[in-house]
Amino acid sequence: MESVPVLLLDGGFSNELNKRCSYNVDKESLWTAKALMTDAKAVTETHLEYLKAGADIIETATYQATTRGLQESLGLSPIECEELIANSVKLAENAVSQYKSLQDDNFFSRQDKVKPAKLPIIAGSIGPYGVYLHDGSEYSGKYMDKVTEEDIIDMHSKRLEVLINSNVDILAIETMPSLSEVEMILRFLQSRSVNAKVWVSFNLQENDPSRTAYGDYVTDAFQTVSKYSNVLGFGTNCINPKNVGPFLKLVSQAKAEAKSDIKLIVYPNVGKTWIPGQGWSEEDVPLIETYAKEWLELGANIIGGCCQVGPDEIRKLRDIVDDWNNLRGKI
Ligand SMILES: [Zn+2]
To answer: Which residues hold Zn(2+) (predicted)?
Structure first.
Protein backbone atom coordinates (compact mmCIF):
# COMPACT_ATOMS: atom_id res chain seq x y z
CA MET A 1 0.00 0.00 0.00
CA GLU A 2 1.16 3.53 -0.74
CA SER A 3 2.57 5.18 2.35
CA VAL A 4 2.38 8.76 1.11
CA PRO A 5 -0.91 10.66 1.36
CA VAL A 6 -2.83 11.70 -1.70
CA LEU A 7 -2.09 15.35 -2.47
CA LEU A 8 -4.36 18.04 -3.85
CA LEU A 9 -3.34 20.27 -6.75
CA ASP A 10 -4.92 23.67 -7.39
CA GLY A 11 -7.60 24.38 -10.02
CA GLY A 12 -7.64 26.36 -13.27
CA PHE A 13 -5.52 29.49 -13.05
CA SER A 14 -7.06 31.50 -15.90
CA ASN A 15 -10.67 31.41 -14.66
CA GLU A 16 -9.70 32.55 -11.17
CA LEU A 17 -7.16 35.14 -12.37
CA ASN A 18 -9.77 36.60 -14.69
CA LYS A 19 -11.88 37.67 -11.69
CA ARG A 20 -9.16 40.04 -10.44
CA CYS A 21 -7.13 40.89 -13.56
CA SER A 22 -7.01 44.17 -15.55
CA TYR A 23 -7.50 42.43 -18.92
CA ASN A 24 -9.64 39.58 -20.31
CA VAL A 25 -7.36 36.56 -19.94
CA ASP A 26 -9.13 34.43 -22.56
CA LYS A 27 -8.80 37.17 -25.21
CA GLU A 28 -5.07 37.72 -24.62
CA SER A 29 -2.53 35.86 -26.78
CA LEU A 30 -0.22 35.45 -23.78
CA TRP A 31 -3.20 34.27 -21.72
CA THR A 32 -2.26 34.22 -18.00
CA ALA A 33 1.41 35.04 -18.62
CA LYS A 34 0.80 38.74 -19.38
CA ALA A 35 -0.40 39.14 -15.79
CA LEU A 36 3.16 38.48 -14.59
CA MET A 37 3.90 41.98 -15.93
CA THR A 38 0.57 43.80 -15.59
CA ASP A 39 -1.19 42.15 -12.64
CA ALA A 40 1.37 40.67 -10.27
CA LYS A 41 -0.85 41.25 -7.24
CA ALA A 42 -3.73 39.39 -8.90
CA VAL A 43 -1.40 36.45 -9.61
CA THR A 44 -0.44 36.19 -5.92
CA GLU A 45 -4.08 36.57 -4.86
CA THR A 46 -5.09 33.76 -7.22
CA HIS A 47 -2.45 31.44 -5.76
CA LEU A 48 -3.58 32.41 -2.26
CA GLU A 49 -7.21 31.64 -3.09
CA TYR A 50 -6.25 28.08 -4.05
CA LEU A 51 -4.11 27.64 -0.95
CA LYS A 52 -7.04 28.75 1.19
CA ALA A 53 -9.22 26.23 -0.66
CA GLY A 54 -6.82 23.53 0.52
CA ALA A 55 -4.41 22.96 -2.38
CA ASP A 56 -1.15 21.23 -1.42
CA ILE A 57 0.42 22.15 -4.75
CA ILE A 58 0.15 25.41 -6.71
CA GLU A 59 1.47 26.07 -10.20
CA THR A 60 3.28 29.19 -11.40
CA ALA A 61 1.58 31.37 -14.03
CA THR A 62 4.13 30.36 -16.67
CA TYR A 63 2.11 27.95 -18.83
CA GLN A 64 2.36 30.36 -21.77
CA ALA A 65 5.42 32.33 -20.61
CA THR A 66 8.00 31.42 -23.23
CA THR A 67 10.76 33.96 -23.69
CA ARG A 68 9.94 34.22 -27.40
CA GLY A 69 6.25 34.84 -26.70
CA LEU A 70 6.97 37.42 -24.00
CA GLN A 71 9.49 39.25 -26.21
CA GLU A 72 7.15 39.43 -29.18
CA SER A 73 3.97 40.33 -27.30
CA LEU A 74 5.33 42.63 -24.61
CA GLY A 75 8.41 44.01 -26.38
CA LEU A 76 10.72 42.94 -23.57
CA SER A 77 14.44 42.22 -23.78
CA PRO A 78 15.61 38.60 -23.21
CA ILE A 79 16.84 39.53 -19.73
CA GLU A 80 13.51 41.18 -18.85
CA CYS A 81 11.68 38.01 -19.97
CA GLU A 82 13.87 35.90 -17.72
CA GLU A 83 13.22 38.25 -14.80
CA LEU A 84 9.48 38.00 -15.40
CA ILE A 85 9.59 34.18 -15.40
CA ALA A 86 11.75 34.15 -12.27
CA ASN A 87 9.33 36.54 -10.61
CA SER A 88 6.46 34.07 -11.20
CA VAL A 89 8.08 31.86 -8.56
CA LYS A 90 8.39 34.82 -6.17
CA LEU A 91 4.67 35.57 -6.61
CA ALA A 92 3.81 31.97 -5.74
CA GLU A 93 6.22 32.07 -2.77
CA ASN A 94 4.59 35.29 -1.56
CA ALA A 95 1.21 33.54 -1.60
CA VAL A 96 2.64 30.61 0.37
CA SER A 97 4.11 32.88 3.03
CA GLN A 98 0.88 34.91 3.27
CA TYR A 99 -1.03 31.65 3.59
CA LYS A 100 1.26 30.30 6.31
CA SER A 101 0.88 33.50 8.29
CA LEU A 102 -2.90 32.90 8.29
CA GLN A 103 -2.62 29.41 9.77
CA ASP A 104 -2.97 28.27 13.33
CA ASP A 105 -0.95 25.61 15.15
CA ASN A 106 -3.29 22.82 14.03
CA PHE A 107 -2.25 23.44 10.46
CA PHE A 108 1.39 22.91 11.28
CA SER A 109 0.77 19.75 13.26
CA ARG A 110 -1.07 18.42 10.22
CA GLN A 111 1.92 19.41 8.09
CA ASP A 112 4.20 17.42 10.37
CA LYS A 113 2.09 14.34 9.84
CA VAL A 114 2.35 14.49 6.07
CA LYS A 115 6.12 14.68 5.95
CA PRO A 116 8.29 14.06 3.98
CA ALA A 117 6.28 16.23 1.62
CA LYS A 118 7.13 19.89 2.03
CA LEU A 119 3.79 21.56 1.70
CA PRO A 120 2.62 23.61 -0.06
CA ILE A 121 4.66 22.64 -3.10
CA ILE A 122 5.34 25.12 -5.93
CA ALA A 123 5.33 23.58 -9.42
CA GLY A 124 6.71 25.48 -12.41
CA SER A 125 4.22 25.23 -15.27
CA ILE A 126 5.56 24.36 -18.74
CA GLY A 127 2.92 24.37 -21.49
CA PRO A 128 3.50 22.78 -24.91
CA TYR A 129 5.22 24.48 -27.88
CA GLY A 130 1.87 24.83 -29.65
CA VAL A 131 0.49 27.46 -27.28
CA TYR A 132 2.90 29.95 -28.86
CA LEU A 133 1.20 29.49 -32.24
CA HIS A 134 -2.26 30.63 -31.02
CA ASP A 135 -4.02 28.32 -33.48
CA GLY A 136 -5.33 25.64 -31.14
CA SER A 137 -2.72 23.18 -32.36
CA GLU A 138 -1.62 22.46 -28.81
CA TYR A 139 -4.79 20.35 -28.57
CA SER A 140 -3.82 18.16 -31.52
CA GLY A 141 -0.04 18.33 -31.54
CA LYS A 142 -0.19 18.82 -35.33
CA TYR A 143 2.73 21.24 -35.14
CA MET A 144 4.95 18.27 -34.34
CA ASP A 145 4.78 17.36 -38.06
CA LYS A 146 6.53 20.62 -38.95
CA VAL A 147 8.93 21.58 -36.17
CA THR A 148 12.39 20.25 -35.40
CA GLU A 149 13.82 19.22 -32.05
CA GLU A 150 15.89 22.40 -32.20
CA ASP A 151 12.70 24.51 -32.52
CA ILE A 152 11.12 22.73 -29.58
CA ILE A 153 14.14 23.11 -27.33
CA ASP A 154 14.68 26.71 -28.40
CA MET A 155 11.13 27.44 -27.20
CA HIS A 156 11.40 25.60 -23.89
CA SER A 157 15.01 25.83 -22.72
CA LYS A 158 15.19 29.30 -21.19
CA ARG A 159 11.95 28.95 -19.20
CA LEU A 160 13.08 25.53 -17.93
CA GLU A 161 16.44 26.94 -16.85
CA VAL A 162 14.98 30.01 -15.18
CA LEU A 163 12.36 28.02 -13.25
CA ILE A 164 14.96 25.49 -12.11
CA ASN A 165 17.33 28.25 -11.02
CA SER A 166 14.44 29.89 -9.17
CA ASN A 167 14.13 26.74 -7.06
CA VAL A 168 10.66 25.55 -7.96
CA ASP A 169 9.98 22.25 -6.17
CA ILE A 170 9.05 20.45 -9.38
CA LEU A 171 8.36 21.22 -13.04
CA ALA A 172 4.88 20.51 -14.41
CA ILE A 173 5.37 19.57 -18.06
CA GLU A 174 1.70 19.68 -18.84
CA THR A 175 -1.12 19.56 -21.36
CA MET A 176 1.38 17.90 -23.67
CA PRO A 177 -0.18 16.54 -26.87
CA SER A 178 2.74 14.35 -27.96
CA LEU A 179 5.23 11.99 -26.41
CA SER A 180 8.04 13.14 -28.70
CA GLU A 181 7.88 16.74 -27.40
CA VAL A 182 8.07 15.41 -23.83
CA GLU A 183 11.05 13.21 -24.71
CA MET A 184 12.83 16.20 -26.26
CA ILE A 185 12.36 18.14 -23.01
CA LEU A 186 13.51 15.21 -20.86
CA ARG A 187 16.56 14.65 -23.08
CA PHE A 188 17.39 18.34 -22.88
CA LEU A 189 17.30 18.24 -19.07
CA GLN A 190 19.41 15.10 -19.11
CA SER A 191 21.94 16.66 -21.52
CA ARG A 192 22.38 19.59 -19.15
CA SER A 193 22.86 17.14 -16.27
CA VAL A 194 19.97 18.84 -14.58
CA ASN A 195 18.28 16.44 -12.23
CA ALA A 196 15.21 18.65 -11.89
CA LYS A 197 12.16 16.79 -10.63
CA VAL A 198 9.28 16.81 -13.08
CA TRP A 199 5.82 15.50 -13.62
CA VAL A 200 4.60 14.86 -17.13
CA SER A 201 0.92 15.29 -18.00
CA PHE A 202 -0.68 14.64 -21.36
CA ASN A 203 -3.71 15.96 -23.12
CA LEU A 204 -5.75 13.06 -24.54
CA GLN A 205 -8.06 12.43 -27.46
CA GLU A 206 -11.64 13.30 -26.53
CA ASN A 207 -12.97 10.07 -28.01
CA ASP A 208 -10.10 7.79 -27.03
CA PRO A 209 -8.43 8.34 -23.65
CA SER A 210 -6.00 5.50 -24.39
CA ARG A 211 -4.15 7.91 -26.71
CA THR A 212 -2.49 11.28 -26.33
CA ALA A 213 -3.97 14.13 -28.37
CA TYR A 214 -1.34 13.47 -31.04
CA GLY A 215 -1.99 9.73 -31.07
CA ASP A 216 0.63 8.02 -28.86
CA TYR A 217 -0.69 5.21 -26.66
CA VAL A 218 -0.67 6.38 -23.06
CA THR A 219 0.80 3.06 -21.96
CA ASP A 220 3.74 3.59 -24.35
CA ALA A 221 4.11 7.12 -23.01
CA PHE A 222 4.16 5.76 -19.46
CA GLN A 223 6.82 3.19 -20.26
CA THR A 224 9.02 5.72 -22.05
CA VAL A 225 8.69 8.52 -19.55
CA SER A 226 9.08 6.31 -16.46
CA LYS A 227 12.60 5.37 -17.55
CA TYR A 228 13.76 8.85 -16.62
CA SER A 229 14.72 8.90 -12.96
CA ASN A 230 13.75 12.55 -12.50
CA VAL A 231 10.12 11.94 -13.55
CA LEU A 232 8.17 11.65 -10.30
CA GLY A 233 4.67 11.95 -11.71
CA PHE A 234 2.73 10.89 -14.79
CA GLY A 235 -0.79 11.83 -15.72
CA THR A 236 -3.31 13.77 -17.72
CA ASN A 237 -4.84 17.24 -17.55
CA CYS A 238 -7.33 19.51 -19.30
CA ILE A 239 -9.39 16.57 -20.51
CA ASN A 240 -13.07 15.86 -19.87
CA PRO A 241 -13.33 14.41 -16.34
CA LYS A 242 -15.34 11.46 -17.69
CA ASN A 243 -12.15 10.28 -19.46
CA VAL A 244 -9.99 10.25 -16.34
CA GLY A 245 -11.25 6.85 -15.08
CA PRO A 246 -10.52 4.98 -18.34
CA PHE A 247 -7.06 6.62 -18.49
CA LEU A 248 -6.27 5.62 -14.90
CA LYS A 249 -7.29 2.00 -15.48
CA LEU A 250 -4.75 1.70 -18.30
CA VAL A 251 -1.96 3.57 -16.58
CA SER A 252 -2.42 1.94 -13.15
CA GLN A 253 -2.03 -1.43 -14.84
CA ALA A 254 1.10 -0.28 -16.69
CA LYS A 255 2.47 1.08 -13.40
CA ALA A 256 1.82 -2.23 -11.60
CA GLU A 257 3.43 -4.24 -14.40
CA ALA A 258 6.49 -1.99 -14.38
CA LYS A 259 6.61 -2.09 -10.54
CA SER A 260 6.99 1.68 -10.79
CA ASP A 261 6.46 4.07 -7.91
CA ILE A 262 5.69 7.06 -10.12
CA LYS A 263 2.79 9.08 -8.77
CA LEU A 264 -0.30 9.26 -10.96
CA ILE A 265 -1.65 12.78 -11.34
CA VAL A 266 -4.99 13.79 -12.85
CA TYR A 267 -6.46 17.27 -13.19
CA PRO A 268 -9.18 17.49 -15.80
CA ASN A 269 -11.06 20.59 -16.90
CA VAL A 270 -14.67 21.16 -15.87
CA GLY A 271 -15.99 19.02 -18.74
CA LYS A 272 -17.50 21.76 -20.89
CA THR A 273 -16.54 22.47 -24.48
CA TRP A 274 -14.22 25.29 -25.56
CA ILE A 275 -15.75 27.02 -28.57
CA PRO A 276 -13.10 29.12 -30.38
CA GLY A 277 -14.09 32.78 -30.45
CA GLN A 278 -16.94 32.25 -27.98
CA GLY A 279 -15.51 30.68 -24.85
CA TRP A 280 -16.76 27.76 -22.76
CA SER A 281 -20.12 26.16 -23.55
CA GLU A 282 -22.99 26.62 -21.11
CA GLU A 283 -24.07 22.94 -20.98
CA ASP A 284 -24.80 21.20 -17.67
CA VAL A 285 -22.09 18.72 -16.75
CA PRO A 286 -21.56 16.44 -13.73
CA LEU A 287 -19.56 18.15 -10.99
CA ILE A 288 -15.88 17.19 -10.93
CA GLU A 289 -16.08 16.02 -7.30
CA THR A 290 -18.57 13.29 -8.24
CA TYR A 291 -15.73 11.49 -10.03
CA ALA A 292 -13.01 11.97 -7.44
CA LYS A 293 -13.51 8.86 -5.29
CA GLU A 294 -13.33 6.65 -8.38
CA TRP A 295 -10.01 8.26 -9.34
CA LEU A 296 -8.59 7.56 -5.89
CA GLU A 297 -9.76 3.96 -6.04
CA LEU A 298 -8.09 3.63 -9.44
CA GLY A 299 -4.76 4.71 -7.99
CA ALA A 300 -4.56 8.49 -8.43
CA ASN A 301 -1.94 9.96 -6.07
CA ILE A 302 -2.48 13.64 -6.89
CA ILE A 303 -5.78 15.14 -8.05
CA GLY A 304 -6.85 18.67 -8.91
CA GLY A 305 -8.47 20.70 -11.64
CA CYS A 306 -7.61 22.49 -14.88
CA CYS A 307 -9.59 25.04 -16.93
CA GLN A 308 -12.81 26.32 -15.36
CA VAL A 309 -12.35 24.33 -12.16
CA GLY A 310 -12.34 26.89 -9.35
CA PRO A 311 -11.67 27.17 -5.59
CA ASP A 312 -15.16 25.88 -4.68
CA GLU A 313 -14.49 22.59 -6.44
CA ILE A 314 -10.98 22.37 -4.96
CA ARG A 315 -12.50 22.83 -1.49
CA LYS A 316 -14.82 19.87 -2.15
CA LEU A 317 -11.92 17.77 -3.45
CA ARG A 318 -10.03 18.68 -0.23
CA ASP A 319 -12.75 17.00 1.86
CA ILE A 320 -12.71 13.90 -0.35
CA VAL A 321 -8.91 13.65 -0.23
CA ASP A 322 -8.87 14.16 3.57
CA ASP A 323 -11.47 11.42 4.07
CA TRP A 324 -9.47 9.10 1.84
CA ASN A 325 -6.18 9.82 3.65
CA ASN A 326 -7.83 9.58 7.10
CA LEU A 327 -9.34 6.20 6.35
CA ARG A 328 -5.91 4.92 5.39
CA GLY A 329 -4.14 6.41 8.36
CA LYS A 330 -2.07 8.76 6.23
CA ILE A 331 -2.84 11.94 8.14
ZN1 LIG B 1 -6.85 23.43 -18.88
So the answer is: 238, 306-307
- Diameter of the chain measured on Cα atoms: 55
d(CA 44, CA 165): 20
Q: Please give the Cα distance from 242 to 61 (Å, whole number).
A: 26
Q: Tell me how far the alpha carbon of residue 131 lies from the centroid of ligand 1, in angstroms.
A: 12
Per the structure, the count of domains in the chain is 1
**How does DSSP classify residue 309?**
-
CATH of the domain at 84: 3.20.20.330
CA dihedral 55, 64, 38, 16 (to 10 degrees): -30
How remote is the CA of residue 139 from the centroid of ligand 1, in Å? Answer: 10
Ligand 1 center to residue 237 CA distance, Å? Answer: 7
Structural domain includes residue 1: no
Omega before residue 120 within 30° of 0, cis: yes
pTM of the shown model: 0.94
d(CA 30, ligand 1 centre) in Å: 15
Measured CA to CA in angstroms, residue 260 lies from 26, 182, 251 at distances of 38, 19, 11
The C-alpha angle 322, 328, 330, rounded to 5 degrees, equals 65
Structure confidence by residue, pLDDT tens digits, 178-229: 999 999 999 999 998 777 999 999 999 999 999 999 999 999 999 999 999 9
Q: Please say whether the beta carbons of 262 and 235 come within 8 A.
A: no
The answer to whether 307 is annotated as binding is: yes
2 domain-assigned: no
CA 36 remoteness from chain centre: 17
Determine the Cα–Cα distance for residues 238 and 225; give it in Å rounded to an integer: 19
pLDDT tens string 100-152: 888 766 666 655 555 445 789 999 999 999 999 888 888 899 999 999 999 99
Tell me the angle at which helices 67-74 and 149-165 cross, rounded to the nearest 10 degrees: 90
Report if residue 146 sits inside a domain. Answer: yes
